[in-house]
Amino acid sequence: MNIEEMPFWSWWVLACILVVAEMMTTTFTFMFFALSAVLVGVAQMLGLRNMTVELVLFGVLGLVLLAAFRKALMTRFKSPESSWNRGSDIAHVVKLLSSIPAHGEGQTEYQGTIWGVRNESNVALAQGQEVVIVKTEGVKLVVRAKN
Predict the structure, then answer these.
(1) What is the Cα 63 distance to its own chain's centre?
(2) 125 in helix, strand or coil?
(3) What do you get for the CA distance between the two ends of the chain, in Å?
(4) Residue 41 φ/ψ, nearest 5 degrees
(5) 55-69, 70-84, 107-121 — which one is most confidently predicted on average?
(6) Are the C-beta atoms of 117 and 109 separated by less than 8 Å?
(7) How far is CA 84 from CA 51, 66, 78, 97, 108, in A?
(8) 127: Cβ contacts below 8 Å, ≥ 6 apart
(9) Strands, sheet with 93-95, edge to edge from the N-terminal-most edge strand
(10) What's this model's pTM, rounded to 2 decimal places?
């Protein structure tokens, strides 16, 4: 099979890979190209059979979707009004799974899930130390030492 005979579902496999990449990075970049891959797969299923056109369509659609919607999504998920910042996590005490230098990053377990944390203080935090969640930034918890 040459590349011109690539089945339509190959684009959907690429979309799944891009969704996994998005879940790992949470940058709101790969998801637009995943959607673009799905749309190109649909176009191919409906009769598009030119790989050059498919590749150009994939790239152009991905960039257009990225330019049109990424900023709005980033604003939505980083804004104080987003569900991550409504205060439900604020003031909870958690134990660190790793040591964190001043203004550094590490991990904690919170609500049964491993979370990335950022130390907002000028003091290093030790593994196992109890810390207080002071705010969230996207899917990262911002913590300081428990008084």
Answers:
(1) 18
(2) strand
(3) 65
(4) -60, -40
(5) 55-69
(6) no
(7) 42, 23, 8, 22, 17
(8) 96, 97, 98, 99
(9) 93-95, 130-137, 140-145, 113-119, 105-110
(10) 0.53
